[in-house]
Write a sequence for this structure.
């Protein structure tokens, strides 16, 4: 997507912000803009509604709705790209997406690498590391607290 963004910037194609007339619009294309365009069903001629829902009546916070619960109106306007091309792009994006979202296993791997490095250098292995973050004010109980965490390598 960086290549597409660079080509569009080199060809001086106006960005979406420039097209709608934003005063602070950049002339540079970004890969996130390209990714957003490639994942948007609007360009296929579909109208997708109910993408988010409010969490409760008393808050303005919203949550994303699963795709099965969204309302999709197909062929509401003239498509820019064909549905076949859109599906090919979606499959390619899905193949490129990392499926391992378990950050703890990655952190464990880093800790094991650090421990291995220390043992190779002849340094003592650290059994426990205690770290404390700065204190914070809890508005509900009106108390200052300190968060602490411990890690073992």
């Amino acid at each position: 997507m960086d290549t597409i963004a660079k080509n569009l910037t080199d060809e001086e194609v106006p960005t979406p912000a420039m097209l709608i007339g934003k005063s602070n619009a950049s002339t540079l294309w970004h890969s996130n803009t390209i990714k957003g365009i490639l994942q948007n069903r609007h360009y296929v001629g579909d109208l997708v509604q109910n993408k988010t829902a409010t969490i409760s009546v008393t808050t303005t916070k919203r949550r994303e709705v699963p795709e099965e619960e969204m309302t999709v109106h197909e062929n509401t306007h003239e498509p820019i790209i064909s549905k076949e091309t859109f599906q090919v792009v979606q499959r390619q994006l899905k193949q490129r997406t990392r499926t391992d979202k378990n950050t703890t296993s990655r952190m464990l791997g880093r800790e094991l690498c650090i421990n291995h490095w220390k043992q190779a250098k002849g340094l003592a292995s650290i059994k426990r590391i205690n770290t404390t973050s700065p204190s914070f004010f809890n508005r509900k109980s009106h108390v200052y607290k300190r968060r602490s965490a411990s890690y073992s390598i």
The radius of gyration is 24 Å. Residues 103-151 form one domain. The mean pLDDT is 76. Residues 8 and 122 are 53 Å apart (CA to CA).
